[in-house]
Amino acid sequence: MTSLAWWLSLTLFAASMTGSPGPNNVMLTASGALYGYRRTLPHIFGIMAGGFVLFLSVALGLGALFERYPLIQQSLKVVGAVYLLYLAWKIASAPPPNLAARDGARPLTAWQAAAFQFVNPKVWVMGIALVAGFLPHEGLLILNALVLALVMESVAFFCISFWAAFGMAIGRLLKTPRAWRIFNGAMGLATAACVGFIVT
């Protein structure tokens, strides 16, 4: 477990999985643009907390439920797809920042973001691949599971923060309500398109 090649491979895996486009990163881009990086931090920490618990659970044996009971996986797909379409609509219909503040709009909370990880099939796939490819056979299972989950979320922080900061940079370029409507509509469509990852 102290092999340099193992650590490097695990880090690259974490970066490619958490940094690639998907429901979380699309929503973080939209949130960063509309609310800024600081107000998006609870969303970021919620993703990390939910992912940590999920990865730890998969490493400790929860992932085996998918193999034994396929209905659980199908149910998660349905719930995830419906919730993602709801979030896509919320993003697409969000007003420009000045109107959003007046209407009391706010970014996803940490609890909402954490809960979403459990109906996000991409995160489940990441967890199963993580355990299958990197969980050491020697040593304490709980310690190995903690190490994997901690590495994943440590790398994830920088990767998903990039998407929120990227959104914030885009938000500074949007000067008119029409530009905001176009951007929010595009982000809503991109979020809805992520349903394709779920149903396949």
TrEMBL record:
Major localization listed first in the record, in broad terms: membrane
Subcellular location: Cell membrane
Family annotation (Pfam families): LysE (PF01810)
UniProt keyword annotation of Cell cycle present: no
InterPro entries in alphabetical order: LeuE-type
Membrane topology (UniProt): Multi-pass membrane protein
Entry keywords, A to Z: Cell membrane, Membrane, Transmembrane, Transmembrane helix
Transmembrane segments: 43-66, 114-135, 142-166, 178-199
Name of the protein: LysE family translocator
Organism annotation: Salinicola lusitanus
